[in-house]
Amino acid sequence: xxxxxxxxxxxxxxxxxxxxxxxxxxxxxxxxxxxxxxxxxxxxxxxxxxxxxxxxxxxxxxxxxxxxxxxxxxxxxxxxxxxxxxxxxxxxxxxxxxxxxxxxxxxxxxxxxxxxxxxxxxxxxxxxxxxxxxxxxxxxxxxxxxxxxxxxxxxxxxxxxxxxxxxxxxxxxxxxxxxxxxxxxxxxxxxxxxxxxxxxxxxxxxxxxxxxxxxxxxxxxxxxxxxxxxxxxxxxxxxxxxxxxxxxxxxxxxxxxxxxxxxxxxxxxxxxxxxxxxxxxxxxxxxxxxxxxxxxxxxxxxxxxxxxxxxxxxxxxxxxxxxxxxxxxxxxxxxxxxxxxxxxxxxxxxxxxxxxxxxxxxxxxxxxxxxxxxxxxxxxxxxxxxxxxxxxxxxxxxxxxxxxxxxxxxxxxxxxxxxxxxxxxxxxxxxxxxxxxxxxxxxxxxxxxxxxxxxxxxxxxx
Amino acid sequence: xxxxxxxxxxxxxxxxxxxxxxxxxxxxxxxxxxxxxxxxxxxxxxxxxxxxxxxxxxxxxxxxxxxxxxxxxxxxxxxxxxxxxxxxxxxxxxxxxxxxxxxxxxxxxxxxxxxxxxxxxxxxxxxxxxxxxxxxxxxxxxxxxxxxxxxxxxxxxxxxxxxxxxxxxxxxxxxxxxxxxxxxxxxxxxxxxxxxxxxxxxxxxxxxxxxxxxxxxxxxxxxxxxxxxxxxxxxxxxxxxxxxxxxxxxxxxxxxxxxxxxxxxxxxxxxxxxxxxxxxxxxxxxxxxxxxxxxxxxxxx
Lengths: 462, 301
Hints:
The structure holds 2 protein chains of 2 kinds. By secondary structure, chain A is an alpha/beta fold. Chain A is built from 19 helices and 16 strands. Chain B has 2 domains: 2-89, Translation factors (Elongation Factor Tu (Ef-tu), domain 3); 94-264, Rossmann fold (3-Layer(aba) Sandwich). In chain B, helix 7 packs parallel to helix 8 and helix 11 packs antiparallel against helix 12 (291-300). The model of chain B is unreliable at 280-301 (pLDDT under 50). Chain A: Pfam families: Fer4_20, Pyr_redox_2.
């Protein structure tokens, strides 16, 4: 038994920081087979329990070993509608791989990269995902085409429902197209292809429709004949700090910066949307979104610095992303918090006053509370600041839908087992319910709601 | 894809287009806006809804060719399609959606500047239909840039036209005309609504504040998504930061931090200008389009 996993080939840091191509090349078939050999085929696999959508991991790995990659893809497809995405962006170290038994004495089986290999192989060889129940005559609307909506739509289509997804932006995919950068998740070859597989199931996607403005939940029921609605509108409302200078030119939310870069392709020649080309970009926050913004800035030629008020241990981003960011020369300013953004006479950012922090006693969340060290203020020179402090659900739907209950943070309240909201026939899941979380948790919520909707509509029929 | 049903050049460089967009036409109200993306590589440009026809399923936009994107839009002809047309966005105009009985004794003055004249027209028309009398002051560069004059003559109680060069109507700025009316004392306005360039709205608000005349402005900051997810359009209103796309676009003109808003609006000016110039230079071999370069240089200042 090999203790170490088969390494994954990657673009060298000094090369990849000059382009937007995918960092990781993934496994080729020979490497994938070697890595698959490391799986012990546990009778009670702990990895499956730790996967939010419970993919039968040992089975697909066995099928891969047997050389039946299409079967492996079918196995994954039973549980997941977006394997090429999840193989790339899941925090596997906290999920499947974190529980892998091989990981106790050596490195865990590289489940994510094996999933990615199977999904990519299937796409390249023209895999079709059309196995579904006969049409049952029921119409369901899905609001939002991010991971939660796509998953819910895919599962319902497989059950025979006529599903229409309404998307506010001009491209489907939600955070997969506007948030996660090209160098982690290629748009044309991966996201578009996964969405095409869903369309093969008969899912209709209508872009440029804002539920709450263009149509309302009420009108979907009353005028368009939908019998159930799933809200997977995400948590897209960015937070700002409220410090002086925050409205200066050159200060923007990570959502704005990443949307310009990813969705509008501002980094690419020939696209019309402009993007700020700062020389020194400070990114406030240390989640995955902050890493994405800093690494995007580096690729646009800037010196990029992360500014985070807690220590390395508390960094919320995936370990692999932090590692990649450091390799690419991103500067980490930990235990540091911005106090004020300095503005030049033209109204543009010229620097940021920060203060050093130390960690005090654990707070209610169990994390040690950062406190300012008196007299430690210093000025960081920078010409752009990207605020990556998290997001909350957009109130557009909850404010235009009578009778839908939300908590004080604007998150829609649902029954955990079915995703049902306080409004009959309306279900919700993903970041619209939890606030910003991960792709796979949104997918899991989409699956739960699809099941909930199916039970609700079948129950009604009786 | 969204079909251009009709296209008309109202005056040089200002175009009206009627776009087939059934869902938008069905729910649009005055004061709201749309976002237009001309083609695959285009940027998302916010444009105010000027009118809509629910039966035909069409929405009218009026725009001036200022940068690369509006130029690209202007090059499209009736019968052609644009890739994306999303809306209605923002909150409807409060004056127009307000209960008519509440407004019947009100004296309202609309100030319209440049291409902002277009969205004012349907609002004035709607108010007239409800029996509310409205005065209108239009500001424009010269008689050759004036749009919709005849239409306004039909719906406005009093129409005042101001030109910068004095080639037509009142020689001067809309604020000069408004000040004269207010000083004359005959016009006891209860409400002022200003739609036009940020600089015009700033000076209108400054003037009306002196007269304690409540003033509503419709802001036009830089936007990306228009649905509240990026904050590119944030403005300071009173002591609060608001997103113009979801909290606006209409705000109390006396509370807006206009200098900040204007500064933010110019954020990408030089980049936009640079891109346009690059494009123009590439096109020089096809046709010598040098005249528009001068305009861009002017715009960049």
